[in-house]
Amino acid sequence: MGGQERSRVAEVIARETRGAGPREVPQRLCDAAVKLLPVDDAGVALCGEGMSVPLGASGQRAADVMELEVTLGDGPGLEAALTGSPVCARDLASRRDACRWPVFAQQAAAAGVRSVYALPLGDRAVCVGTLDLYRDVPGELTADGLRTARTVADAVTSALVSLPRDEPDDPGRWLSPLAADHGEVYQAVGMAMVQFGVPADEALALLRGHAFAQGCPVLELAHEVITLHTRFDRFDEPPPL
């Protein structure tokens, strides 16, 4: 049965990614995950410097929920990346999950996501990212569903590490639009590090805190910062708690 399941997963992923360019592959992988698993949305994120970097999503809602984790610095996907172990949020509207990730749980549930299953991508030694699975209803994956999800995560990992890199004419050509956009966050973090003389993690926390206080994604605030529409001298006071 295991061999048959791996063959089925490989067949669906091959079909979904056939003819796709490097930038399209992450989203196609998410589409394949939705076809293979009893989930409504899926997203793939890479482990970045102090934050996850959304790489692909099956739809706008999945992209928004991943961006929410980036802004908050909290959520099941980030926990899975940090621990290297699968993380299940059975019901984001429940007291248990609300206590684990208070703001994330409330905002994701408001967007219609009731349960999340985040699986690390990579091996026991190195976690390169996560496969985040979203459902509209509460509940956990069955034992069979979990086995399939792990097989899908392995196939997604293989597909991602096979993407071309370091092309002389276009070194970022394999990056999806979601990932490419997050380069602005790193630029804004660098600007904050220089101005305030703080390390990268503190600069990122500064951006996150002000993005949360303003009710906008950290990506949006970063764009405002690097295009000089928002000045760092406005960040001198800490954001309200």
Briefly summarize what is shown.
It contains 11 helices and 5 strands, in the order H-H-E-E-H-H-E-H-H-E-E-H-H-H-H-H. It has helices spanning 2-17, 25-36, 60-72, 76-83, 95-100, 102-110, 143-161, 177-181, 183-196, 200-214, 218-226, and strands at residues 41-47, 52-57, 87-89, 115-122, 127-135. The termini are far apart.
Helix/strand layout:
Blueprint: H1 2-17, H2 25-36, E1 41-47, E2 52-57, H3 60-72, H4 76-83, E3 87-89, H5 95-100, H6 102-110, E4 115-122, E5 127-135, H7 143-161, H8 177-181, H9 183-196, H10 200-214, H11 218-226
Antiparallel strand pairs: 1-2, 1-5, 3-4, 4-5
Helix pairs in contact: 1-2, 1-7, 2-7, 3-6, 9-10, 9-11, 10-11
Ranges where pLDDT stays below 50 over 5 or more residues in a row are 168-175, 237-241
Q: What best-fitting shape do the alpha-carbon axes yield?
A: globular
Number of strand segments: 5
How many individual helices?
Answer: 11
The CATH homologous superfamily of the largest domain is named GAF domain
Here the CATH topology of the largest domain equals Beta-Lactamase
Helix-residue proportion = 40-55%
Radius of gyration: 18 Å
Largest sheet: 5 strands, antiparallel
Biggest sheet strand order reads 2-1-5-4-3
- What does the average pLDDT come to? 81
Ends: how far apart? 53 Å
Approximately what portion of the residues adopt beta-strand conformation?
Answer: 5-15%
